[in-house]
Structures are given as C-alpha cells and as structure tokens.
Amino acid sequence: MTDFSGTYKLVSHDNFEALLRELGASEEIIAKLNQNTSDLEITQNGSAYTIKNVSPNHTREISFELGKEFDETRADGSTVKSTVTLDGNKLIQIQKGEKELKIVRELDSNELKITATAGSVEAHGVYAKQ
C-alpha cells in the first residue's frame, strides 16, 4: 500500500478559479481562495487518513477511512458527502453535493499530483514532498 504520509508544498496549480465557478462559489470566495498558497499535511494510519490543507488565512482538515462515506465542507462553503478509495498510488475522492466533484491525488515519487474535475472543468495542482 502506498504511504501518502508527509508534508507537501504547492509548486503549481491551474484552472482553480474556473473549477470554483463551476461549483457555484461566489466571486468573494474565489478571490479569497486565490490569494492563498497552501501546503498539505497527510497522515495515514492503515486505512484511516487525515488531510490538512494549510494556508496563511485558513486551515481545512478532513479525516476519513477508505471506502466510508463522511460529511465534508468544501472550500466553496457547501456541505457534501464524500467517499475516498485507494487505487494503487491514487487516492480518489468523490464529493456528492449539488454538483459532484472528483479529486484524484496521485503520488509519483516525491510529487503529489492533484486533478479535480467538476462537470467539464478540470483543475490541476502539483505539490512537492518536503
């Protein structure tokens, strides 16, 4: 099983604004989130995970067990039902709300590549393991 544990620093991201608009986020929320650079902290204990998204203005944290649905508040403020599964070196998260969001976190050597898809909009992020 792939060990995702570690701290990751954001290296690059693209199309995040368009993704937030697709999810229905207000321009105020989009502007606020766009000012942030973030780090990820992932801890793993068997099939239990915690992912912290740490930025200067805000920290968001989710804890979950693989394959078990949980409640989550998205960055756009909406409450959704999430389920995360493991496929090799990928954590695949499906958020079901008014609009569905799929987040794939793929660990490739010392990089964590994130692809987030809502409707026809896809955003990408790359984090370097510290």
Automatic annotation (TrEMBL):
UniProt cross-references to CDD domains, sorted A to Z: FABP
Signal peptide: none
Record domain Cytosolic fatty-acid binding proteins: where: 6-23
Entry annotated with the keyword Transport: yes
Listed GO MF terms: lipid binding
Assigned keywords, A-Z: Lipid-binding, Transport
Pfam families: Lipocalin
Similarity comment text for this entry: Belongs to the calycin superfamily. Fatty-acid binding protein (FABP) family.
Protein name (record): Cytosolic fatty-acid binding proteins domain-containing protein
